[in-house]
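Q: Hi! First time asking for a complex rather than a single chain. Here are the components, and I think there are two in total. Is that enough to go on?
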Amino acid sequence: MSAGLLSEPDAKSAGERFEALYRSCAGDVFSYVASLLHDRGAAEDVTALAFERAYRRRALFEARRGSERAWLFAIARNAALDELRRRRRSGRLIGEIADAPQIEPDDALAERRLLVREGLAMLDARDREVILLKFVGRVSNGELARILRCSETAAGTRLHRAIVRLREACNVPR
Amino acid sequence: MSRDELTQDAIAELAALDAIIAGEPVGEEHLELAALVDSVRAQVPPFTEASAQRVEERLAHRQARTRRLPTIARPRLALAGGTFVALGVALVALLASGALTGSPNRGVLTPSFRSSTTSPGAALHGSAGGGVAALPAAGSGATASFGATASPGATSVPAPSTTRPLPNTNPSHRLVARNASLTLAATPDQFQTVANEVVSSTVRLGGIVQSSNVDVHGLSSYASFSLSVPSGRLPALIGALSSLAAVRSLDQGTTDITDTYDTAAARVAEEKAERTSLLRQLAAATTLAQQQAIEAKIAALDAKLAAATHQVGELLSRGHNARVALAIVATRAAGGSGGSSGPVNRALNDALSVLEVALAIALVALAIVVPVGLVALALWWAAATLRQRSRERVLAASRP
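A: Yes, that's all I need. Here is the structure of the assembled complex.
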């Protein structure tokens, strides 16, 4: 059924492979989750939870359905959305990322990044998520489709439209 | 163009995006896209050393808790699941066997074997050997002549004693009539062979075929036999017949006819005594009228004596010869040994029967498990869908 890094029959090998997966993905998973939650502490919790779930459910991983990275992002996405639901129910305010990247206004590159930040903020949450999954999660369109539970064509369309809207929001000519 | 279809430009741009993400070089026309990707990546919160340390601490804490799960929660769940499965299988087996429904012979896949004894209070003796002891009152010389007779009417009548016989109270001297009804199933190609074997087996055991009817027409073939065999050889005959083909049903019955026989034999003895008396009176008669009257009485008595004697013979025949009603039906499935390869075919039949029973149990189990599983699956799917929709809603409502 499963094949890949996580499906090692040997516990030691599985542990080593899992650690390798953690080293390669933890930063991106955290960044993606933090972008959704806007709370560093919660993002750390959700990132740890996602890796724990991935390890517990490693027997369910199917290599033919996508990479481990995409599978991990799908788990992290569900965990982050569950955290959002929990916060919504309890009425907790969403915190701010205290150490968000600082932008120097004189820098042209920094100005562009500022524009993109504002553009991202103006986007619909779904468009923003698609862009984050693709740009930060670095998943293929097929994997994106499985995470979003839609067809690959629909995922590609959503992604392209999100990029177009981001450009519009940033006033970037195409 | 449908709403999900992409233009060629869009497809090219998505391909370029994949190349950018993979770190591959792209054409000049996609440099802006590369800059956009870089800018977006620069927006996401960085995974600082402090965050990494906290994540690892939390992960280690979670994993420490997780490691306890397999030893506490999971085996319990597995044990509970195993218990439920075992209970389910036991219930299904009970249902399949009919124990809960009160019908011990509900299984259609197994042949039915039934035995009945219709004698009130009569001890069924010699059941293993099936032997019937001769009645001392009936005269020991009569028993030998009943072994291979074709008709009860053709039997020689035992000479009853002139005194009334005492009732048979010794259980080993009871007269018991035995009969059996047997149905065999044979394949069309074996049918004639089985029918022939029925006759030869019966004759070999000292029995006779009183009547037979064999109709061979493929799957509608049918044969019926009325067999008679010395009572002591009835089990052997049933064994021999059962080895010829698959046994569909077997009914055996015994009837204690000792009292009926005693009554009939007593009547014969009384009538003979009366006849002797009448003969003495005839010898002493002095007038023609007296002689004629006595002769008329003797003639009437002779008719009654003949009938009573015939009944005694009939009862003795029933006691000494078992009747077997045999039917052979055609079946598709191979059944019975049909000859020399008996044990192998019988073993195959037994294996087939076991498989059939197992299949029946599995079908009943499936009939329970599948609907329950489908309902559980539907509930799980509904719950998962609702949860996912709820997640999507919360995402749509989230602010940047």
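A: Chain B has four domains: 8-43, 51-106, 112-340, 355-400. Let me know if you'd like any chain examined more closely.
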